[in-house]
């Protein structure tokens, strides 16, 4: 880096920069998110120590490129993990630029590997802490809106969006606190597993209250083309799959919570790179239920998924979490 470009920078060592960044992050994110950023920036601080870099001012684009290559080999990372790691480093360096620790444009030189969408979606999920943070924000500022109700419904029940879309008003028994899922292909709302996917799904009192408030104050009183009364509606009738996906894209993007959002174009017509799909909400919900020690058979029946498919495609618990859960069972033997 050319020397005169460093004139406005204030010397700071990597460890101190990391600590200040994490304190800043803690003021706007939940502890689980901060822990993730601490874990990922720890490797960067470690690399700086190995390379003898004791002043953030000295970092160059070439250094960041060398770090990316080192981190991939050091952690034996796949493309998805490396992408996550480098996204965090880009956010970290952008923040460092805001406090004159590095050149203000250094973060633009972070090369984040592109991952094929199908590979990315196999691993992405909405984390429990993120879901709760978004739901709290929706409850405070968008209570009983379509976005609020949709995420609350998907998160608590783990439903596919096709199943959520298929629910009619008459299928929601809010007094007894359950939803009835029916396979109705002849009128445009089939269930993925046909009549075998028909079931009753218990809901919490909180979700029942939210649905009641939505029906009473927000829901557009519309019927669909078959004359049915949908639970989730738009001004056109039954809420469409595309609208449901768009709502999830909007509310799971960090910028929805006024957080830093790497790669975001702020174009509402485009999906933010940091947002997740509705299926990632389902995967996160299933993983959360399993983490809370709900038996696999119960989760499978509730979410309409076989044990084999659940374990292969939905269970994203870490090996450490599974170990501790097994240990807790064994301790009670």
Could you characterize what this model shows?
With 333 residues, this protein is mainly α. It is 53% helix and 4% strand. The protein is built from 14 helices and 5 strands. The strands form 2 sheets. The chain has a 3-stranded antiparallel beta sheet, with no helix packed on it. It has a two-stranded antiparallel ribbon with strand order 4-5. A hairpin with a 2-residue loop joins strand 4 and strand 5 (237-238). The longest helix is centred in the first third of the chain and has 21 residues, at 31-51. It is elongated, with a radius of gyration of 23 Å. The termini are far apart.
Helix-strand sequence: HHHHHHHHEEEHEEHHHHH
How much β-strand is present in the residues? under 5%
Largest sheet: 3 strands, antiparallel
Q: What is the terminal separation in angstroms?
A: 62 Å
* Unreliable parts: none
Q: What structural category do the secondary elements indicate?
A: mainly alpha
Shape: elongated
Helix content: 40-55%
Tally of helical runs = 14
Q: For the largest beta sheet, what order do the strands appear in spatially?
A: 1-2-3
In short:
The chain has 333 residues and is mainly alpha-helical. It has helices at residues 14-26, 31-51, 61-75, 79-98, 117-123, 128-141, 146-157, 161-166, 205-218, 241-252, 278-291, 296-303, 307-314, 319-331; strands at 172-173, 178-181, 199-202, 233-234, 237-238.
Key features?
three-stranded antiparallel beta sheet; 333 residues; two-stranded antiparallel sheet; elongated; mainly alpha
